Amino acid sequence: MTDPVHVADALVAGFADYHARFRAITQRAQRRFEARDWSAAGDDAVERIELYDRCIGEMAVRLDALLGARIGERAVWVPVREAYARAIARLLDQELYKTWFNTLTRRFFKTRGVDPGIEFVALDIEPTDRITHPVARHSYAVWGNLPRVFQAVLDDYPFGAAYAHAGLCAIRIAQALSRRLDAWGPDPVRAIELMQTVFYREQRAYLVGRVFGVERIAPLVIALVNDAAGIRADAVLTEREHVAQAFGYTRSYYQADLETVGDAVVFLRTLLPNKPIDELYTVLGRAKQGKTERYRHFFRHLARDPDETFVHAEGERGMVMLVFTLPSYPVVFKLIRDRFAFPKETAREEVMAKYRLVFHHDRAGRLVDAQEFRFLRFPQKMFAPALLAEILAECRDSAYVDGTDLVIAHCYIERRLRPLNLYLREVDADAARRAAVDYGQAIKDLARSNVFPGDLLLKNFGITRNGRAIFYDYDELCLVTECRFRALPDDEERPGGDAWYVGPHDVFPEQFPRFLGLSDDARAALLERHGDIFDVRWWLDLQASIRAGRRIDVPPYPASAGVVPEVLWSGV
User: Fold this and answer.
1) Which residue range forms the structural domain that includes residue 146?
2) Which residues does the entry assign to the active site, renumbered to this chain (predicted)?
């Protein structure tokens, strides 16, 4: 029999190889930013997303060679798990190693639920609590001359491309920060800390840290862009709401080259103490660990109130997905129905392909991150009777009964949002106008990242706590470049027969307002700010730009966070 220690060592080496390859891809981000090679940066992001499953496949082949016919024997894996636990005990990122191990054993054993003998299960701990290793950072004491401090900051972050004007850039950052912290009183800044690692995503680089006053502390994120003039500061974020959006579940993953991840997560939690740990791991590109932490936190929550029941999520019944939730926990579970109501003509495989597209694509801050889970086990008694009956009647390809349990064979889990159509009925006229305007902005942001929602009905959008409109119904989502945007023919051009043909990819923007169900006031606000999305010419021009390879910038922060191009400094 193969020595368990030998197998455990092979597993440790396999994760180390994955981590090294992950970092190698991530390290390209600086070169992409310097060269403004946004297309290659997008390719790198997709390659890195796909890397985990590729490496798991390679590891499975190596284990098959090591264990042969015994690879599926539980008695083999129990001592391997014990040896593996000893091998990783002193590692800072041992939780990532545990997730790697669990991914492989679940692959071999098709585990329904969890098996503590051959998996690492610790629902009662917060894994980052034991991490005391400080993340690598630059620290700056501030004694009056804030521009000089930021000149030193820029000196500590050199790039292969030049700053447009480092001195002016430092002044603008200092001015922006002073304005943000005006309520802190005169000379508000006493110290600044920034992580040594630069965070890259899409067309920006970010310096991430915090700013200290005499008695206060705030996040500090400096966004850099690289345009024809060179690298310059574009925004300074100090409000937790803005930083939370930049690190949110509607954003693509950062390219941040971290030797270890757990200490970075601990540091980021000091900036965003209310941000779930699973979202921080995920936004750093560690999607599998994000799933592990979401699972851990959810089942720990269940243990505190085992009598709470799952119920249908609020909102209109989905034709493609059955959606349920636990009222006390802010996520929804989405199961694909066995059959779709008319007029839906898609198939299960096509729906799953749409979710994979979202997983790989730039989400532009307007698509909720959907995590795919398999073989979750719950007691049947946890489901409201009507919900359980509907699952068993309409989702037999996604769930089945095993004894007294219901096993969810396949589902997507997303953050729960308030459906936009319900939200608009509940709020006052001003809030409704703001939501309608942001709904239009969401459509534009998605379109500029080459995403067309397909179904623009309000029920397919949700509203976050910060009032942002987010799209979450993906079964008709497609690329803008796949659509055929058309103008409606005049009445005299419409033949009486069937000669006027509507193809499967035809889209008529003029028809959008007819089906939205907005109040007159909210509709007027939408048309005033974003009336161009109902004009076919806007879509055709955008489509032509995307096909020509022009990347349209969608900043992940509001205009109010931007720096002002002033050059005078009145500070002491």
Assistant:
1) 137-296
2) 369
